[in-house]
Amino acid sequence: MYDIKINNVTKRYDDVLAVDNVSINIPEGTIFGLLGPNGAGKSTLINMLCGLLRLDNGDIFVGKDSIKTEPQNIKKNIGYIPQDIALFEGLSVKDNLDYFGRLYGLSGSTLKDSMNKSLEITGLLDNRKTTVKKLSGGMKRRLNIACAIMHKPRILVMDEPTVGVDPQSRNHILEFVRSVNSESKTTVIYTSHYMEEIESVCDEIMIMDLGKELLKGTKDEILRSVIDETYVEIKTDSLDSSIGSSLKSIKWVKSVSSNGSVIKIVTTGVDFDIERIIQEFKKKNNAIHNISIKQPNLETVFLSITGKKLRD
Amino acid sequence: MKLLNILMKDIKVFNSQFVQNMFMLLVFPIIIGLLYGIMYENILENKLELNTLKVFVLNEDDGVAGTAFDSLMESDSLAFIDRIGVADLQELNSNIDRNKNAVGIILGKELSQKLMNGEKTDFRILDKGNITIEKTIFNSILKNFTDNMNINFQAAGIIAENSLSQDEVIGKIERFTKLNSEISAVNFVESTKTEGKTKISSIAMFLTSIFVIFAFFINTEFLAERDKHILSRVIASGASSKTVFWGNFLSIFSLTFFISGIYFLISYYFIVPARPFVLDFLGAIALLSVMIASFYAFIIGFFTTERTMKIFFGMIFFAFIMFGGSFYPADQFSITAKVAVFTPNFNMQKILESLVSGGNLAQEGVRIISLLIICSILTLTGLFMFEKKVKA
C-alpha cells in the first residue's frame, strides 16, 4: 500500500513559517492537487515528502515507512519532477535518461526497456539522440517528466510541471497525468497555481496559502463549501413583465432582476435545472437569444477566502 | 556504482564538447606554456644590465697596492664603473658633491709600505646617494680586495722581518695581485640562476593546473549536480549527498589525470629534456589531480548556484594563485614564503620543479605530505559544507 499520510507537518525558514501544521491523507491512486499562489508552501511540502527537506514538526508516511526513519524506501517509490528543468543540457535525451535511470538502480535490459517506455509515454522517441539544449521548452519539460518515471514509481510528484510550456505540450502533460493514473493507478501529487489545470485533472484538491491549509476536498465539495450561488443571464427580444414572478416561484431561484432585454437570475447551489428556466420563457413566448451561466470556480473560491487572486 | 555513474556522465559531458575541451585543456596551455617559457628565458637567462656608477679615485700610493687597485678598476668586468681619477682631496669632494650617486676612494700616500709594516693606513671609501645594486656589487669587490690586501701585505711584512730578499718579498706580493685578478674576474654580471635549457619553465609547467581549473570552470556542465535544481532531483532519486560529492571529486580527479597526463607527456618527454621515472611522472600527475579535485570539492561545498560560484570562484582561485606564488617566486621573500607553504599550488609547483630539475618524488616527501594534508583539509571542509547545505 502506498497511501500517503502527512501528519501535522511544520517547516520554518528562520522567521518565515513555510508550512504550518498541515495534515493530509492521500489514498493510493488519487490525483491530488495542491493549489495556491507563489509562496503558499506547496513546494516546501512536497520537498519534505521527497526527503529533500527536514521536517521541523510532524511526520510523513508512505505506507508504513516514515520519511524520518526510512527515507530511502520512500524515495524508491517516488518520481520527483522538479519545478525547474533539471537536466544536463550538453547530453542527449538518451544519456540523461541513462544517468537518472542508473541513479534509481536500473541497469542492463531493465534500463533499456524503461528508457524506451519513458520516451514513448512522453512522445520523445524520435528525439532520443537529440542534445537537450536543442530541444524546445515543451520537450525539455517532457524529458523532465521522462527522467522521473524511469523506475515506474508508485507516486509521482509534479511541482508546477507546466510553467512556461506551450499549449500543445501542456495538454500532453495533462493527458500524461490522466493516463499514468488510470493505467497504473499511480498516485499523482500535482502542484500548480493554474486553477484550470487542477480542476481538470485532480480528484482531490487542497488550497494553501501562507503555509496553511485553507480548504480540502473534491472540486465540488470545495465549491459548495464556499459559494452556493450560480449566476444566469438571459437575453430576450421583448421582456414579459410577468416572467420575473414566474422565475421567482422556482424554489432554487434566489433572485431575479432585469436590465432592458437582459434578465439576471441568481440560483442557490451549483447544480440547477436550466431546462426549467427555459420552459418558463417558452410559456410566456419570450424568444431567448443568449444564455450565459457564470458558475463559481476555484479562482473565485480562492478570492472569496483570501481576498486575493491566485496569481497575485 | 552511483559514483561510477556520475563519472561516466561527466566523461560524456566532456566528450560532448571534446574539441573545445581539448583546445582549452591541452593546445592552449602548451601554446601559452611555450610563450611563457620564451619570456622566462629572456628574463632570467640573459645578462643583467647595470647602470654606470661614477667612482672618483684619489690614488696617492706608488706601490703594489696602488697599482693593483688601478688594475682592478680597469678590469673589463667592472665596465659599469666610470673611474675618474682626481689630483687631490678637494677635487674628490667637489666631484662627489656634484653627483647624486657617487663613490669616492682614497688610497693614501705610502699605503703599500704601511701595509707591509703593519702601520696605520689611509684607505677610505666615501659614499653618496642611495644604496644601489651597482654600489652593492662594487662594495663586495672592494671588501674582497681589501681583505686580500691586508692578508697578503701582513704576510709580506712578516716575511721581510724574517730577512727574506727583496725578490722573495715581491714574489709573495705577486700572490696578492693574482688573487686580486681572480676577484676581478668574477663574472658577477651574468645571471647566477638559470633553469637549464628548457623552453617550458617549471612555472610554465604549472600553467596546466591553472588552465584545467579554468576550463572546468568555464564548462559549466561539469559538476552540474552542484546546481540546486539538479541536486534536488539527484537526492530525490535516492543518491546520498556523499555520493554526489565524491562522484564529483572522482570525475574531476579522473579527467584531470587524463588531461594532465597528456600535457605532461608532451611537456616532459618532448619539449623539456627532463624524462622523469614513470612512477614519478604518474605520481606527479596524481598529486596535481588530487590538488585540483580538492580545490573543486571546496568550491562545490560552499556554492550551489552558478552565479555565486562564479563570483567566489575567481576570488578564491586568485587568492591561491597569489599566496601560492604561481606567477612570482614566493619563496624568495620571507613573508610570502611563510604564507605560500600553506597553499597547495606552491607545494605542487615545488614538486614539479624538482622533477624538471632531475629530482624525484622520494626527495619531496615533506612537500607531498604537506600537499596531501592541505588537500584533505580543503576536501573535508567542502564535504562538511556540502552536507550541511543538503540537509538544511
Q: How is the biggest beta sheet of chain B arranged?
A: 4 strands, mixed
Multimerization status: heterodimer
**Topology of chain A as a string of helices (H) and strands (E):** EEEHEEHEHHHEHEHEEHEHEEHEH
How many strands, which pairing sense, and closed or not: the largest β-sheet of chain A?
Answer: 6 strands, mixed
User: Got a strand count of chain B?
Assistant: 4
**Rg from Cα of chain A:** 24 Å
Overall pLDDT of chain B, averaged?
A: 76
Instruction: Give, in order, the helices and strands of chain B.
Output: HHEHEHEHEHHHHHHHHHH
Question: What is the helix tally of chain A?
Answer: 11
| Class based on secondary structure composition and strand pairing of chain A | alpha/beta
Report on this model:
With 312 residues, chain A is α/β, with parallel strands linked by helices. Chain A has 11 helices and 14 strands. Chain A has helices at residues 42-49, 71-76, 93-103, 108-121, 137-148, 167-184, 195-201, 219-226, 243-248, 274-283, 298-306; strands spanning 4-13, 16-26, 31-35, 57-62, 65-66, 78-81, 155-159, 187-192, 204-209, 212-217, 229-236, 253-259, 262-268, 288-294. A 6-stranded mixed β-sheet of chain A has the order 6-7-8-3-9-10, with helices on both faces. A 4-stranded antiparallel β-sheet of chain A has the order 2-1-4-5. In chain A, strand 9 and strand 10 (212-217) form a beta hairpin. The longest helix of chain A has 18 residues, at 167-184. The two termini of chain A are 38 Å apart. By secondary structure, chain B is α/β, with parallel strands linked by helices. Chain B has helices spanning 2-16, 18-44, 64-73, 89-98, 111-117, 133-161, 166-184, 202-218, 228-236, 241-271, 278-302, 306-323, 334-340, 344-356, 365-391; strands at residues 53-59, 81-85, 102-107, 123-128. A 4-stranded mixed β-sheet of chain B has the order 2-1-3-4, with helices on both faces. Classes of the chains: A alpha/beta (312), B alpha/beta (392). Chains A and B meet through helix 2 and helix 3 of A and helix 1 and helix 9 of B.
